[in-house]
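[Meeting: bench + compute handoff]

Bench side (C.D.) handed over the final construct sequence. Compute side (W.E.) agreed to return the predicted structure before the next meeting so the bench team could plan truncations. Sequence as handed over:
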Amino acid sequence: MTSNAKYLVSRLFYWGDNYFSDWDSDLNKFNPVGGSIEVGNSSYWGSVDINELNTVFDNVIDSSGVYHLMTHPNILQWDEDFTWSHLEYISNRKDIWYVGFGHLYLYRYLSNSVNDNSLGILENKTPLNSDFKLYQNYPNPFNPITSLQYDLTKDGVVNITIYDMMGRLVKTLVDGSQTAGFKTVQWNATNDRNEPISAGLYLYTMQKGQHRETGKMVLIK
């Protein structure tokens, strides 16, 4: 999956480039990513000017870009007001996504390489005489709760399980007899020990008798 997804990213970056980098077929990796601005000492290309920091953020959001906030531990100054003021300024907004840098790129690279450029489609391979139908989870991607919906046309024993991309069992959601009808089960991104799991691509599988269906979903954090 790693080879297919091609999500290697250079450690280098370009200042002021506020969009996703593209795949470089010559270098066989993604181009250096963009760095909107760095919080910290100007000797390291950073800024301690709260107005400049906030303005860069506003401009990136207004242009529907990706705000790449650089916070190198070597120059990050947690004891200075501008650091906390800027973090407060960009936080807790309801109209934008917040996501870890690595997870943001990993999801984009996987979503463009897996399942014919879409992780939101569950192929309908249900036989006409099947006694259940499994639907795509929603939302997808999700954090941290998603719902699985399915139709049972007959009573029977149902098993719904979550696996990671290495094929290891993560969570058993359903394992027992159920009556016919439309069903919904939620998953809160924990394993069978009720421990939170890491972000990434997961498979969910439903089996009833000899009939088995599988879908893909993405957990982001």
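W.E. noted at the follow-up: Confidence is low (pLDDT under 50) at residues 115-126. C.D. will use this when planning the next construct.
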